[in-house]
Q: What sequence folds into this?
Protein backbone atom coordinates (compact mmCIF):
# COMPACT_ATOMS: atom_id res chain seq x y z
CA UNK A 1 0.00 0.00 0.00
CA UNK A 2 1.17 3.48 -0.82
CA UNK A 3 1.85 5.23 2.49
CA UNK A 4 1.41 8.97 2.66
CA UNK A 5 2.94 10.92 5.53
CA UNK A 6 0.97 14.08 6.25
CA UNK A 7 2.14 14.64 9.80
CA UNK A 8 5.10 16.96 9.27
CA UNK A 9 4.00 19.15 12.20
CA UNK A 10 4.65 16.18 14.52
CA UNK A 11 8.05 15.43 13.06
CA UNK A 12 9.75 15.31 9.67
CA UNK A 13 11.97 12.91 7.75
CA UNK A 14 15.66 13.86 7.82
CA UNK A 15 16.76 15.10 4.40
CA UNK A 16 19.41 12.86 2.78
CA UNK A 17 22.05 15.61 2.64
CA UNK A 18 21.41 16.41 6.32
CA UNK A 19 21.68 12.73 7.28
CA UNK A 20 24.92 12.48 5.30
CA UNK A 21 26.40 15.48 7.13
CA UNK A 22 25.31 14.03 10.48
CA UNK A 23 26.80 10.60 9.73
CA UNK A 24 30.04 12.08 8.45
CA UNK A 25 30.61 14.21 11.55
CA UNK A 26 29.49 11.47 13.93
CA UNK A 27 32.57 9.42 13.09
CA UNK A 28 34.94 12.11 11.84
CA UNK A 29 34.49 15.08 14.15
CA UNK A 30 34.17 13.36 17.48
CA UNK A 31 36.24 15.88 19.43
CA UNK A 32 34.99 17.72 22.48
CA UNK A 33 34.66 21.41 21.55
CA UNK A 34 35.97 22.34 25.02
CA UNK A 35 39.27 20.46 24.51
CA UNK A 36 42.25 22.57 23.60
CA UNK A 37 43.96 20.06 21.29
CA UNK A 38 43.49 19.93 17.54
CA UNK A 39 40.73 17.30 17.63
CA UNK A 40 38.74 19.46 20.01
CA UNK A 41 39.46 22.63 18.05
CA UNK A 42 38.08 21.01 14.89
CA UNK A 43 34.80 20.27 16.70
CA UNK A 44 34.80 23.84 18.06
CA UNK A 45 35.20 25.19 14.51
CA UNK A 46 32.18 23.18 13.28
CA UNK A 47 30.16 24.32 16.31
CA UNK A 48 31.07 27.98 15.73
CA UNK A 49 30.22 27.78 12.03
CA UNK A 50 26.84 26.24 12.84
CA UNK A 51 26.13 28.93 15.41
CA UNK A 52 27.02 31.72 13.00
CA UNK A 53 24.84 30.24 10.28
CA UNK A 54 21.79 29.78 12.53
CA UNK A 55 22.19 33.28 14.01
CA UNK A 56 22.23 34.84 10.56
CA UNK A 57 18.95 33.14 9.63
CA UNK A 58 17.05 35.02 12.37
CA UNK A 59 19.05 38.27 12.35
CA UNK A 60 20.89 37.47 15.60
CA UNK A 61 24.52 37.48 16.76
CA UNK A 62 26.24 34.08 17.14
CA UNK A 63 26.74 34.67 20.90
CA UNK A 64 22.96 34.96 21.28
CA UNK A 65 22.34 31.34 20.20
CA UNK A 66 22.20 28.63 22.89
CA UNK A 67 22.10 25.09 21.52
CA UNK A 68 19.75 22.81 23.47
CA UNK A 69 18.24 19.35 23.39
CA UNK A 70 15.18 20.47 21.36
CA UNK A 71 12.13 22.71 21.37
CA UNK A 72 10.78 21.65 24.75
CA UNK A 73 14.11 22.24 26.44
CA UNK A 74 14.39 25.66 24.78
CA UNK A 75 10.91 26.60 26.01
CA UNK A 76 11.72 25.38 29.51
CA UNK A 77 15.04 27.22 29.59
CA UNK A 78 13.35 30.44 28.46
CA UNK A 79 10.52 30.19 31.01
CA UNK A 80 12.23 28.76 34.09
CA UNK A 81 15.42 30.66 33.29
CA UNK A 82 13.55 33.98 33.17
CA UNK A 83 11.43 33.22 36.25
CA UNK A 84 14.52 32.39 38.29
CA UNK A 85 16.68 35.27 37.01
CA UNK A 86 13.96 37.90 37.51
CA UNK A 87 12.09 36.60 40.57
CA UNK A 88 13.03 39.65 42.62
CA UNK A 89 11.59 42.01 39.98
CA UNK A 90 8.16 40.41 39.84
CA UNK A 91 6.15 37.21 39.68
CA UNK A 92 3.66 37.92 36.90
CA UNK A 93 3.68 36.00 33.60
CA UNK A 94 1.49 36.44 30.52
CA UNK A 95 0.89 33.57 28.10
CA UNK A 96 -1.89 32.15 25.93
CA UNK A 97 -4.12 29.10 26.35
CA UNK A 98 -3.07 27.66 22.95
CA UNK A 99 0.65 27.21 23.66
CA UNK A 100 2.48 23.93 23.07
CA UNK A 101 2.81 21.78 26.20
CA UNK A 102 6.51 22.73 26.36
CA UNK A 103 5.32 26.21 27.36
CA UNK A 104 1.93 25.38 28.87
CA UNK A 105 3.20 22.90 31.43
CA UNK A 106 6.27 24.96 32.32
CA UNK A 107 4.05 27.98 33.07
CA UNK A 108 1.59 25.78 34.99
CA UNK A 109 4.45 24.60 37.15
CA UNK A 110 5.42 28.19 37.95
CA UNK A 111 1.78 29.00 38.69
CA UNK A 112 1.67 26.11 41.16
CA UNK A 113 4.84 27.52 42.74
CA UNK A 114 3.15 30.86 43.39
CA UNK A 115 3.73 32.88 40.21
CA UNK A 116 0.73 34.88 39.01
CA UNK A 117 -0.26 33.91 35.45
CA UNK A 118 -2.57 35.67 33.00
CA UNK A 119 -3.85 33.09 30.49
CA UNK A 120 -4.92 34.97 27.36
CA UNK A 121 -7.86 33.55 25.39
CA UNK A 122 -7.99 33.32 21.58
CA UNK A 123 -10.78 34.09 19.11
CA UNK A 124 -12.48 31.51 16.87
CA UNK A 125 -9.51 31.74 14.49
CA UNK A 126 -7.06 30.86 17.25
CA UNK A 127 -5.68 34.40 17.48
CA UNK A 128 -4.43 36.19 20.58
CA UNK A 129 -5.53 39.82 20.81
CA UNK A 130 -2.74 42.41 20.95
CA UNK A 131 -5.04 44.59 23.06
CA UNK A 132 -5.42 41.75 25.58
CA UNK A 133 -1.63 41.62 25.96
CA UNK A 134 -1.50 45.38 26.52
CA UNK A 135 -4.30 45.22 29.09
CA UNK A 136 -2.69 42.32 30.97
CA UNK A 137 0.70 44.04 31.37
CA UNK A 138 1.57 45.06 34.94
CA UNK A 139 4.57 46.63 36.64
CA UNK A 140 5.53 43.21 38.00
CA UNK A 141 5.21 41.35 34.66
CA UNK A 142 8.56 39.66 34.04
CA UNK A 143 7.72 37.43 31.09
CA UNK A 144 5.37 37.37 28.11
CA UNK A 145 5.45 34.08 26.19
CA UNK A 146 3.32 33.72 23.05
CA UNK A 147 3.94 31.19 20.28
CA UNK A 148 4.80 32.37 16.75
CA UNK A 149 2.68 29.79 14.91
CA UNK A 150 0.31 27.20 16.32
CA UNK A 151 1.23 23.55 15.82
CA UNK A 152 -2.39 22.30 15.65
CA UNK A 153 -4.32 24.78 13.53
CA UNK A 154 -1.43 26.86 12.14
CA UNK A 155 -2.59 30.29 13.32
CA UNK A 156 0.21 32.86 13.16
CA UNK A 157 0.20 35.18 16.19
CA UNK A 158 0.84 38.94 15.92
CA UNK A 159 4.31 38.66 17.46
CA UNK A 160 5.67 41.84 15.84
CA UNK A 161 2.76 43.92 17.16
CA UNK A 162 3.12 42.46 20.65
CA UNK A 163 6.86 43.14 20.47
CA UNK A 164 6.06 46.77 19.61
CA UNK A 165 3.93 47.13 22.78
CA UNK A 166 6.61 45.50 24.91
CA UNK A 167 9.30 47.93 23.77
CA UNK A 168 8.16 50.27 26.54
CA UNK A 169 8.06 47.53 29.19
CA UNK A 170 10.90 45.67 30.91
CA UNK A 171 9.25 42.20 30.65
CA UNK A 172 11.19 39.60 28.65
CA UNK A 173 9.36 38.52 25.49
CA UNK A 174 9.65 34.85 24.49
CA UNK A 175 8.16 33.19 21.45
CA UNK A 176 7.97 29.45 20.79
CA UNK A 177 8.83 29.49 17.09
CA UNK A 178 9.36 25.73 16.80
CA UNK A 179 6.61 25.37 14.21
CA UNK A 180 7.28 28.70 12.46
CA UNK A 181 11.08 28.53 12.07
CA UNK A 182 11.97 27.64 8.48
CA UNK A 183 8.33 28.12 7.39
CA UNK A 184 7.89 31.90 7.65
CA UNK A 185 10.50 34.69 7.85
CA UNK A 186 11.61 35.39 11.43
CA UNK A 187 13.83 38.31 12.34
CA UNK A 188 14.34 38.80 16.07
CA UNK A 189 14.64 42.59 15.79
CA UNK A 190 11.62 43.03 13.58
CA UNK A 191 9.60 40.77 15.92
CA UNK A 192 10.96 42.53 19.00
CA UNK A 193 11.53 39.24 20.85
CA UNK A 194 14.17 38.63 23.54
CA UNK A 195 13.94 34.84 23.51
CA UNK A 196 12.99 32.48 20.68
CA UNK A 197 12.78 28.66 20.62
CA UNK A 198 13.35 26.39 17.62
CA UNK A 199 13.84 22.67 17.04
CA UNK A 200 15.72 20.68 14.39
CA UNK A 201 13.36 17.73 13.89
CA UNK A 202 10.48 19.91 12.69
CA UNK A 203 12.56 21.11 9.72
CA UNK A 204 14.07 17.86 8.43
CA UNK A 205 16.92 17.79 10.94
CA UNK A 206 17.71 15.28 13.69
CA UNK A 207 15.62 14.87 16.85
CA UNK A 208 16.89 16.04 20.21
CA UNK A 209 18.49 19.26 18.99
CA UNK A 210 17.28 22.83 19.10
CA UNK A 211 18.28 26.34 20.05
CA UNK A 212 17.15 29.19 22.23
CA UNK A 213 17.90 32.69 21.00
CA UNK A 214 18.69 34.99 23.93
CA UNK A 215 18.99 38.70 23.16
CA UNK A 216 22.19 40.20 24.59
CA UNK A 217 21.41 41.63 28.02
CA UNK A 218 18.28 39.52 28.59
CA UNK A 219 18.48 37.93 32.03
CA UNK A 220 18.38 34.14 32.07
CA UNK A 221 19.43 31.58 34.69
CA UNK A 222 20.86 28.28 33.44
CA UNK A 223 18.52 25.33 33.94
CA UNK A 224 21.21 22.77 34.64
CA UNK A 225 24.35 22.85 36.74
CA UNK A 226 27.56 21.63 35.15
CA UNK A 227 30.30 22.78 32.83
CA UNK A 228 30.67 26.15 31.20
CA UNK A 229 29.39 25.20 27.73
CA UNK A 230 27.15 27.60 25.79
CA UNK A 231 28.52 30.54 27.80
CA UNK A 232 27.38 28.94 31.06
CA UNK A 233 23.75 28.90 29.94
CA UNK A 234 23.41 25.21 29.03
CA UNK A 235 25.82 22.78 30.63
CA UNK A 236 26.86 19.55 28.93
CA UNK A 237 29.04 18.60 25.97
CA UNK A 238 27.49 19.91 22.77
CA UNK A 239 26.06 17.42 20.24
CA UNK A 240 28.25 18.75 17.44
CA UNK A 241 27.12 16.39 14.62
CA UNK A 242 23.43 17.05 15.35
CA UNK A 243 24.00 20.80 15.66
CA UNK A 244 25.84 20.90 12.33
CA UNK A 245 23.06 18.85 10.73
CA UNK A 246 20.51 21.25 12.26
CA UNK A 247 22.35 24.25 10.80
CA UNK A 248 22.37 22.65 7.35
CA UNK A 249 18.66 21.76 7.57
CA UNK A 250 17.83 25.29 8.74
CA UNK A 251 19.84 26.86 5.94
CA UNK A 252 18.06 24.74 3.34
CA UNK A 253 14.62 25.42 4.90
CA UNK A 254 15.19 29.17 4.87
CA UNK A 255 16.55 29.18 1.33
CA UNK A 256 13.58 27.15 0.07
CA UNK A 257 11.01 28.95 2.24
CA UNK A 258 9.23 30.85 -0.53
CA UNK A 259 9.05 27.81 -2.81
CA UNK A 260 7.70 25.66 0.05
CA UNK A 261 5.12 28.26 1.05
CA UNK A 262 3.86 28.40 -2.54
CA UNK A 263 3.78 24.63 -2.86
CA UNK A 264 2.04 24.09 0.48
CA UNK A 265 -0.52 26.76 -0.37
CA UNK A 266 -1.22 24.78 -3.52
CA UNK A 267 -1.51 21.56 -1.48
CA UNK A 268 -4.10 23.23 0.77
CA UNK A 269 -6.17 24.27 -2.24
CA UNK A 270 -5.77 20.83 -3.83
CA UNK A 271 -6.98 19.14 -0.67
CA UNK A 272 -9.99 21.44 -0.24
CA UNK A 273 -10.94 21.25 -3.92
CA UNK A 274 -10.67 17.46 -3.97
CA UNK A 275 -12.81 17.07 -0.84
CA UNK A 276 -15.34 19.46 -2.30
CA UNK A 277 -15.29 17.52 -5.58
CA UNK A 278 -16.04 14.33 -3.61
CA UNK A 279 -19.06 16.05 -2.06
CA UNK A 280 -17.69 15.83 1.50
CA UNK A 281 -19.06 18.09 4.22
CA UNK A 282 -16.09 19.80 5.90
CA UNK A 283 -14.89 23.03 7.44
CA UNK A 284 -11.32 24.34 7.65
CA UNK A 285 -10.43 25.40 11.19
CA UNK A 286 -8.78 28.84 11.47
CA UNK A 287 -9.65 29.41 7.83
CA UNK A 288 -9.82 33.19 8.17
CA UNK A 289 -6.58 33.50 10.10
CA UNK A 290 -3.16 33.92 8.60
CA UNK A 291 -1.75 30.41 9.04
CA UNK A 292 1.55 28.57 8.66
CA UNK A 293 1.80 27.30 5.09
CA UNK A 294 2.23 23.64 6.03
CA UNK A 295 -0.70 23.14 8.45
CA UNK A 296 -4.29 22.43 7.44
CA UNK A 297 -6.78 21.50 10.17
CA UNK A 298 -10.17 20.26 8.97
CA UNK A 299 -13.39 19.46 10.82
CA UNK A 300 -15.58 16.71 9.32
CA UNK A 301 -19.12 16.98 10.76
CA UNK A 302 -20.71 13.66 11.62
CA UNK A 303 -17.43 11.80 12.13
CA UNK A 304 -15.58 10.76 15.26
CA UNK A 305 -11.88 11.56 15.51
CA UNK A 306 -10.80 8.20 16.96
CA UNK A 307 -12.58 6.20 14.25
CA UNK A 308 -11.39 8.61 11.59
CA UNK A 309 -7.73 8.35 12.61
CA UNK A 310 -7.91 4.54 12.76
CA UNK A 311 -9.56 4.40 9.33
CA UNK A 312 -7.03 6.78 7.79
CA UNK A 313 -4.14 4.85 9.31
CA UNK A 314 -5.52 1.61 7.84
CA UNK A 315 -5.70 3.38 4.49
CA UNK A 316 -1.98 4.25 4.78
CA UNK A 317 -2.48 7.90 5.63
CA UNK A 318 -0.48 9.31 8.57
CA UNK A 319 -2.29 12.33 9.99
CA UNK A 320 -2.94 13.58 13.47
CA UNK A 321 -5.62 14.95 15.75
CA UNK A 322 -3.05 17.56 16.73
CA UNK A 323 -3.55 16.71 20.37
CA UNK A 324 -2.27 14.17 22.81
CA UNK A 325 -3.43 10.60 22.87
CA UNK A 326 -3.52 9.28 26.43
CA UNK A 327 -4.09 5.60 27.11
CA UNK A 328 -5.58 4.98 23.70
CA UNK A 329 -8.21 7.69 23.90
CA UNK A 330 -7.84 11.14 22.46
CA UNK A 331 -8.29 14.10 24.78
CA UNK A 332 -10.04 17.05 23.17
CA UNK A 333 -7.44 19.47 21.81
CA UNK A 334 -6.87 22.40 24.19
CA UNK A 335 -6.44 24.61 21.11
CA UNK A 336 -9.85 23.72 19.67
CA UNK A 337 -11.45 24.05 23.13
CA UNK A 338 -9.98 27.57 23.31
CA UNK A 339 -11.33 28.42 19.85
CA UNK A 340 -14.82 26.90 20.06
CA UNK A 341 -15.56 26.23 23.74
CA UNK A 342 -16.12 22.99 25.67
CA UNK A 343 -18.43 20.50 24.00
CA UNK A 344 -18.22 22.00 20.50
CA UNK A 345 -18.53 19.30 17.76
CA UNK A 346 -15.20 20.37 16.18
CA UNK A 347 -13.39 18.99 19.24
CA UNK A 348 -14.44 15.47 18.28
CA UNK A 349 -14.09 15.58 14.49
CA UNK A 350 -11.02 17.61 13.49
CA UNK A 351 -7.93 16.27 11.73
CA UNK A 352 -4.59 17.96 11.17
CA UNK A 353 -2.93 17.47 7.79
CA UNK A 354 0.62 18.85 7.67
CA UNK A 355 2.85 19.00 4.64
CA UNK A 356 6.58 18.86 4.02
CA UNK A 357 9.58 17.34 2.33
CA UNK A 358 9.05 14.74 -0.40
CA UNK A 359 5.33 15.28 -1.06
CA UNK A 360 3.86 15.77 -4.52
CA UNK A 361 0.48 16.91 -5.76
CA UNK A 362 -0.40 13.28 -6.50
CA UNK A 363 0.04 12.37 -2.81
CA UNK A 364 -2.35 15.14 -1.80
CA UNK A 365 -5.00 14.00 -4.28
CA UNK A 366 -4.59 10.40 -3.04
CA UNK A 367 -4.85 11.58 0.56
CA UNK A 368 -8.01 13.54 -0.20
CA UNK A 369 -9.58 10.49 -1.88
CA UNK A 370 -8.69 8.24 1.09
CA UNK A 371 -10.06 10.83 3.51
CA UNK A 372 -13.26 11.21 1.50
CA UNK A 373 -13.75 7.41 1.55
CA UNK A 374 -13.28 7.24 5.32
CA UNK A 375 -15.52 10.22 6.01
CA UNK A 376 -18.27 8.81 3.78
CA UNK A 377 -18.08 5.44 5.49
CA UNK A 378 -18.16 6.91 9.00
CA UNK A 379 -20.96 9.39 8.38
CA UNK A 380 -23.03 6.61 6.79
CA UNK A 381 -22.39 4.45 9.87
CA UNK A 382 -23.39 7.29 12.17
CA UNK A 383 -26.63 7.89 10.29
CA UNK A 384 -27.32 4.15 10.43
CA UNK A 385 -26.80 4.10 14.21
CA UNK A 386 -29.20 6.98 14.73
CA UNK A 387 -32.06 5.31 12.83
C1 LIG B 1 7.21 20.19 18.41
C2 LIG B 1 7.00 21.46 19.14
C3 LIG B 1 7.67 21.72 20.35
C4 LIG B 1 8.59 20.71 21.01
O1 LIG B 1 9.77 20.52 20.31
P1 LIG B 1 10.64 19.20 20.61
O2 LIG B 1 11.91 19.42 19.86
O3 LIG B 1 9.84 18.05 20.09
O4 LIG B 1 10.84 19.14 22.08
C5 LIG B 1 7.45 22.92 20.98
N1 LIG B 1 6.63 23.84 20.45
C6 LIG B 1 5.96 23.63 19.29
C7 LIG B 1 5.08 24.70 18.75
C8 LIG B 1 6.12 22.44 18.60
O5 LIG B 1 5.45 22.24 17.47
A:
Amino acid sequence: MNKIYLDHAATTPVRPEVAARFAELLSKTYGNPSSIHGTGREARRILDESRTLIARLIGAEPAEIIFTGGGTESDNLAIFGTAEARKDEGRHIITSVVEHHGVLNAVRKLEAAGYDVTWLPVDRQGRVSVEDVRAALRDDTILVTIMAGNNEVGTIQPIGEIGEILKGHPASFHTDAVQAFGEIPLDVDRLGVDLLSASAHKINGPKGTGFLYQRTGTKLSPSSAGGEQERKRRAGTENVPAIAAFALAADIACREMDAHAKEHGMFKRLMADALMGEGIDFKINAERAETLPHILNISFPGTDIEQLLVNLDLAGLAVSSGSACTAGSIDPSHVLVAMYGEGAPELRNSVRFSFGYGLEGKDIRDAAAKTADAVRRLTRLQKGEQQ
